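User: What would this chain look like folded?
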Amino acid sequence: MRVLLCHPSGAVRFRDQGRRRSGAHCYFVLEEDVMFAKLTAEFIGTLWLVLGGCGSAVLAAAFPELGIGFVGVSLAFGLTVLTGAYALGPISGGHFNPAVSLGLWAGGRFPAAHLFPYIAAQVGGGIAGAALLYLIASGRADFSLAGGFASNGYGEHSPGGYSLTAGFVTEVVMTFMFLTVILGATHRRAPVGFAGLTIGLALTLIHLISIPVTNTSVNPARSTAPALFVGDWAMGQLWLFWLAPVLGALIAGFLYRAILEPEVGEPAITGRNSR
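Assistant: Here's the prediction, encoded as structure tokens.
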């Protein structure tokens, strides 16, 4: 099947198969080409999130005398999403997170048919990011996976020694709020052009709150990637960092669609008069 894409700026390149010019800035492209571009964007974006976020934790958080600490790691995660959203969001929507894709589906913003390929691309990109990080980090003589490799955990593997219950509640609530911010920032009545900034800052805040509890997941792909390299306890506790973020995202999506999505009376939040 072919789809017609139009771009005001023109000059958008796709693979040659099935493409022809139609009008000044419109192109027919194969639907498979469009999906390939979206999945590639999700792969790269999740790779960037893991490499930038987990990389800051592994390489820079405790660097002697200059370590960036929890605040720096929180900013790094937020900045990866912020930059990825603006760079790759126009292509794929900039999910970079299975919980986000599922939450957007629950909120009526994303088709169910795209869930599996998106999640597969996100997990694959996360693993690629972790592999690159391992290649870099292992270049230091005293590197060891015993430090956790930025994996998420609870109990004795929580940075602050927090329990399974505390970790579960934290991940559900933080992911719920993350999806609520995403759905609100991308609402048709929201100010245009600020969604990426808002979402990136929200993720920064989430990390500032929850790094001591679980090392902050809110993203099953981010959790899966380093856990595969650490194995052992990290793989044993990984279930929580799929279950809790997905649950929080689904609750947010369904509630937002049922309660907050319907049209509300004017004036709009911008304060401009509607005519």
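The chain has one domain: 35-260. If you want, I can go into more detail on any region.
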